[in-house]
Amino acid sequence: MNILELHGVTKQFGGLVAVSAVDLEVPQGSIFSVIGPNGAGKTTLFNCISGFYRPEAGRIIFDGVSLVGLRPDQIAALGIARTYQNIRLFGRMTAIENILVGQHSRLKSGLAGALFRLPRTRREEQEALDKAHQLLDFVGLSGYGDMFAHNLPYGQQRRLELARALASEPRLLLLDEPAAGMNPRETEELMAFIRRIRDELHLTILLIEHDMRVVMGISDIVAVLDFGEKICEGTPQEVRCNPRVIEAYLGKGVA
Amino acid sequence: MKERKVSLGLLLRLGIGLLVLAFFAYRFYGVLARQAYGAETWARLAISGLIIGSVYAVIALGYTLVYGILFMINFAHGEVMMIGAFAGYFVLEAFAASGFSARQPVLAILITFLAGMTVSMLVGISLERIAYRPLRGAPRLVPLISAIGASIFLQNAAQLMFGSMRRTYSNPPALERNVGWVLDVAGKPVSITYTGVLTFAFSVVLMIGLYLLVQRTRLGRAMRAVAENKEAAALMGVDVDRVIANTFAISGVLAGAAGVMWGLHNGIIYHYVGFIPGLKAFTAAVLGGIGNIPGAMLGGIVLGIAESLAPAVLDMPFQLKDVLAFAVLVLVLIFRPTGILGEVLAEEKV
Amino acid sequence: MGLRTGIRTGLIAAIVTIFLILIGVHMLMGRLLQSWFYVPAHWPGVWLMVVLLGLWAGSRAVGQMKARSWGNTLLAGASAGIIQGALVGAALYLLASITQAGVDLRAWLTQMSQESIAALTLGLAPLPAAGFIGGVLLVSAVAGAAWREWRLRVHAARLARGERTVSLRERLLEIPAVAQVSSNPLSRRVLMGVFMVLLLIAPFFLGQYWNYNLGTVGIYVILGLGLNIVVGMAGLLDLGYVAFFAVGAYTMALLTAPQPHHIQMSFWLALPIGVLLAAIAGILLGIPVLRMRGDYLAIVTLGFGEIIRILSKSDVLTGFTGGPRGVRNVGHPVLFGKDIGNEFYFFYFILIGVILAIIITRRLEHSRVGRAWRAMREDEKVAQAMGIYTLKYKLMAFAMGAAMAGFSGAIFASRNSFTGPEDFVLLVSINVLALVIVGGMGSIPGVILGAFVLKGLPEILRELEDYRVLVFGALLVVMMIVRPQGLWPASRPQLERPRPEEEALEEAPAELVEGEVGS
Predict the structure, then answer these.
(1) CA C464 vs CA B161, C305, C450, C461, C503: distances in Å
(2) CB of C255 closer than 8 Å to CB of C414
(3) Closest chain C residue to B333 measured between Cα atoms?
(4) Is the Cβ pair C469, B152 closer than 8 Å?
(5) DSSP per-residue letters across A139-201
(6) Where do the domains of chain C lie, and which CATH numbers do they carry?
(7) Which class for C337: exposed (0-12), middle (13-18), buried (19 or more C-beta within 10 A)?
(8) Which residues contact C341 (CB under 8 A, 6 or more apart)?
């Protein structure tokens, strides 16, 4: 069963077509990678899925629900979480608070609950805090919980961003070049961790990456984007051997 | 397959827009039906709107230039204009006292403009150096607050130095205010003042000059490059700091010229004189599409004429003229935030 | 090297000096010294300023140099002093000779009275006076340069010996008593308690005047806490905040005053109505403008604030709001048949309001709502991707801030028994914004401190009255450059539970745990 389906999604800026009639079918529980050189339209695709751009044409179906026209916060509430290529944490909030914000759509209390300290609100906050601690442990950040996010070292920031995304209990996790700025050893650890997330939390992961070697090891399916068009799709093995991919992408001396 | 849901918000905005238009039409019809104003009044209003509009356009250019490069609203721009107006005022006072403006009116006016433009340019440069440059790269709110602080500072410094009384520009005798050619419209006289013609003509000269500067010179090329992409421009060997300083200098020169024109044409200046024109010029810049140079010119003239004609068209007290400009600002920002000529910016950071 | 730095610094120093003289700061210094230290004349204060500016020029010139030596230092100091002295001297010569010719300069430069210029010329003729001030500036610039060079050398020597510089805070913490009090939450509470008791009994000892002023500070604390929600937490720069203050005040005035509407409702009924109407106004204004980007929002709210003021001043609404003359005889609160509308009772009333506002802000700050606000402030798009419906939360912030402004406006109108358009100038918005920023955006103690500094201090320093707004403007710029987090920055919540088996904290480098101030 596919948790996410894209049919003919097209997005243009002025005259520039950033994403052109892209079809994707992401099976439930898979690790699906979209790769392509810089400027191939990968991030634009993410922005279409998470609701920041409205595609000019095409359909995006998440678990039977059409996402086109929904606001980003509604899409997040449906169970899609994301991280960013250039880490975007809430800098002047602590690590724990970042995770608590991640839980936003799973919590309910509003103004009245906060102002009158209703028992229901207090219980909810307590549970949210418990969960935040669990996530902190899960990503290996215990001890850093009370630090401002922008004071954390780079690697910890990456992991905090992951924890924040996981806090919303997503069914689909969008990771935008999670290995950017990491050395090969860190990248390997991260990939193992991503697999662990999928296995332990039973969610689907959609990953974009410009360096195809990074994702070969963990991806179930790889789709290649070039100039906004999907040029091929398949298992890592198939993609690696596809002549169009080699020409468009790996041809630059990596093959 | 193209699928487009019509959103509720769009319908709502369209509906409100139509309602507002219908209301305008209704009021205007009433005014016309009563024949409340003769043709000469309409002509007079249109001419005065055109003149004020050209001053707005010159000020608006300063906002747009800075916005185009730094993506910040130079809140203190109106105050830069006010200081230029004061500089011109002092020069003219001296010339009037010494009799120079009676003997050499052309030279006197020229020097007055030069003084106003130079002083405003220096203020503009220092403003950037002191209040904005240290904040480059900070969150957006930070330079904006600094700009507001600078605006308040300049306004109060002027009040402390020059007092809060209203001062009258002493124009040279050859350029008296409210004197000019008289046209005949429907049998009634409509005067076109000399100061008005000077203001309009000089505004047009400044606009053409700026356009040529931006399109044809090395500096203009560098400015456009920095506006497009600071990092790339720096890599191509453009001195970004200097280009930004020059941009502030140019916008200061324009503000200074506008200040002197304001003084010569309207006659009255005081420490608060830059504030409202500044806001209106900003409105004009937004109306035309902020960051867009022809847009600022168009926006200024449209706003000037609109605010001059609107009280008569809508049959409302002339006291509320200023409210109208703000209303235009709000309406433009709600219905067409990119302005008349503004294009949709390419991939916005989301 | 030293020469160029000196000339540049001298130029800047000369402009600053002439500017300060033109806005009359030298006379202000003179008067301050006169009234505080019982100096018999004001020339000592005037010349203190001149000497200080000379010292500053010399010291700054040295500070700007990269390669230093005693020769270079003296060269820089002297060149700065010569340029500063020559330019200031020339300006003084010009001013003094025009004044001597019998022209009253005040017609153009209001601060340049005979007296003001005489304080600088010391009764000398223009030329010798110019020479004298130039000489003084030169000598002080050289002295300033030498002093800075000496300080820098001492500092370098200390560094070479491996001593590190100690900040004032660290020195204070070395005193055992201070360390104990600051680390012990109980003693902090005791200190707070003492402060509260002092506040509670203060009105019995302060006169009417100070009770009134303390009340004003309190009103600004409430306003500040309200704007703190909007600007400090939600990151929405609202420059038309005064509009909601006006809604509260006019609601109170129109509902309780005999003119122009003859409703004469009770204060206690009008107060909640005022708060509610202000909140509704916040939402109504918010719906169209809150979709806009941050800087547009600032200018549009500013425009709205002006629209409200122009409308309330114009003849259009005279029948409804009393027009430019305002509303008189606004009702007072009556409790148990007793009119409690004087400064003394209002002080307590406002104090209750302040405490309420503090409780509200505190509870919101660390709730789901407050976190959503702060997340929006940090990165609106990411906040949206986390499931926060930003428009809804922006409206909430606007409404909460507006409600607090409405509350203070209602009290303000009732306490003054009057309200009119002039109570709602842009300056009020700027004032509140300045106190929030100076105190510390998002910080409750910061806002209170800001209100005391910017609203209370000027009452004590009455001589500074004319310069207050100028200082606000300068403070906004300086704070943004030097200390954007404010005097008393918001504290980090301590939410992580200690887990003895974890030793991660010790592994974390010390500066990471300590560092609160960042980019």
Answers:
(1) 15, 27, 17, 6, 54
(2) no
(3) C292
(4) yes
(5) TT-TT-TTSBGGGS-HHHHHHHHHHHHHTT--SEEEEESTTTT--HHHHHHHHHHHHHHHHHH
(6) 2-165 (no CATH), 208-482 (1.10.3470)
(7) exposed
(8) C332, C333, C334, C414, C415, C417
Domain boundaries, chain B: 44-349
**Which residue in this structure is represented by tokens 């309190």?**
C218
The pTM of the full predicted model, rounded to 2 decimals, is 0.88
DSSP string of B54-70, one letter each residue: HHHHHHHHHHHHHHHHH
Angle between helices A119-138 and A95-102 (to 10 degrees): 110
Sheet holding A57-62, edge to edge: A16-27, A2-13, A57-62, A65-66
Both structure tokens of C4: 């160029």
- In whole angstroms, what is the distance from residue B188 CA to residue B185 CA? 5
Separation of alpha carbons A16 and A30, rounded Å: 32
Distance CA B21, CA B28 (A): 10
Residue C96, H or E segment: helix C70-100
* C-beta atoms of C364 and A114 within 8 A: yes
Give the list of residues 6+ apart from residue C266 with CB closer than 8 angstroms, or none. Answer: C256, C331, C334
pLDDT at C165: 60
Are residues B140 and C466, on separate chains, in Cβ contact within 8 Å? no
Residue from A7, A10, A13, A43 whose CB has the most chain B CBs within 10 Å, to mutate: A13
SS3 content of chain C, % helix, strand, coil (to 5): 75, 0, 25
CATH fold label, B44-349: ABC transporter involved in vitamin B12 uptake, BtuC (1.10.3470)
Contacts of residue C441, defined as CB under 8 A and 6 or more positions apart, other chains included, come to C228, C231, C232, C485, C486, C490
What's the pLDDT band for C344 if we cut at 50, 70, 90?
A: confident
Q: Which amino acid is at C59?
A: S
Residues C101, C104, C105, C110, Cα dihedral to 10° = 160
Which chain B residues touch C238 with a CB distance below 8 Å? none
Whether A57 sits inside 8 A of B3 (CB atoms) is: yes
Pairing of strands A31-35, A16-27: unpaired
The pLDDT score that the predictor gives to residue B347 is 39
Cβ contact C385–A152 (<8 Å): no
More confident residue, B74 or B3: B74
Mean pLDDT of chain C: 87
- Segment among B18-32, C50-64, C206-220, C372-386 with least mean pLDDT: B18-32
- Pair B122, C12: CB distance under 8 Å: no
Residue B5: closest C-alpha in chain A: A69
- What pLDDT score does C193 carry? 85
Omega into C260 within 30° of 0, i.e. cis? yes
d(CA C373, CA C446): 18
Q: What pLDDT is attached to residue C492?
A: 82
Angle at the Cα of C31 (from C29 to C34), degrees rounded to 5? 110
d(CA A250, CA A240): 9
Q: Is C430 helix (H, G, I), strand (E, B) or coil?
A: helix
Given CB atoms, is C375 within the 8 Å cutoff of chain A?
Answer: yes
Give the ipTM.
0.93
Helices (H), A30-153: 42-49, 72-78, 95-102, 111-116, 119-138
Q: Which chains touch A (3 or more CB pairs under 8 A)?
A: B, C
Instruction: Find chains touching chain B: ≥3 CB pairs under 8 Å.
Output: A, C
CA atoms within 13 A on the CB side of C252: 33
Q: Average of pLDDT values for C96-107? A: 90
Q: Is A71 on the interface with B (CB under 8 A)?
A: no
